[in-house]
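Task: encode each sequence below as structure tokens.

Item 1
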Amino acid sequence: MPGRKNDGSPCTVDGTVTVEQAAGDKFYPVSRDCLPDGQSTGTRSMILPLSSGRNCLEGPKPCVAQIGDPSIGVPVQDDQCATALCNAQCTGLACVSQTRDGQCTDSKGGVSQLCCSTDTSKPCFPTAQRLGVAGLILRTGLAAVPVPPWPDPTYPKTATGSLVSTFCEAATTFALLNTLAGLPGPGALILSGTQVWMSP
């Protein structure tokens, strides 16, 4: 595509991004082979502890700036709700659709666990300590069971499940990105997919 790096080279689709606020097609295939032109705002490598069970970060302030982190001196916060509670059902752009298990999906494709009580369109992580009790960020995966199950010799076998992760994100060297994304701070991820087992 014109205006893209590696123009004319083959691209392998690595994922799909849903942009609910986009006009027209809301689904965009993305590829590490075919990056858009322009300056990168920064990259971040992370090791994610994926699990098909429960994964959580306990508050208050589960993530702190580390030595060598470019944002040393930037205060880490539990949420962006100021003095309000992070305990409300999300609405508006924070809940444009729902997953199969009833969780809100926000306009950028993420999962909104809860929102601020004074602004239910603002997602938050409920890790702040209230009345002596600290909240937590919780994600629960779903183990995939192959169908047809063993010892049935039939192939291919398929299963649909999800892996989850909660983790701490370090800051980048781009101060504006840190401010917009709340870095350093917590993150949570749900990866849903279908697995296929082929005949050995």
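Item 2
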Amino acid sequence: MLGEILFEERGRTSGVRVISSDANETTLEVSLQTEGRILGVEQRSMWTYLSRTRSDGSIYGEGKGIMTTKDGDVIRMEGVGAAPGMSGDGSIRYRCGLHFQTNSQKFSKLNGVLGVAEYNVAADGTTVATVWEWK
């Protein structure tokens, strides 16, 4: 069951690099920077993930991010996601699972939480993510 929204963020890809490409799979390394709010507090994040487009068109992604709040709290994140493929307009709609690690007392509850996310990338490289607690 979905719980409260943990965070929302918007951003833009800042780099894409081809890691490999053959008849079975193309792997891209994607970097992005985002801004938003986590549990009501302003934050900025940096992410890097690998996006693997398979021969059937489906996409698998896995990545890591680091978030810093306006108060200086640091939250590390790791996630995996999947998408049925690229849409006709060039966008990708991932559905993801995220876990967190922080030494911050204020955000320590995140250490035992699994987040589920909608992460969308538009053809122009803009991104939008919403992450809920999975209860």
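Check on item 2: The radius of gyration is 15 Å. The mean pLDDT is 97.
End of task.
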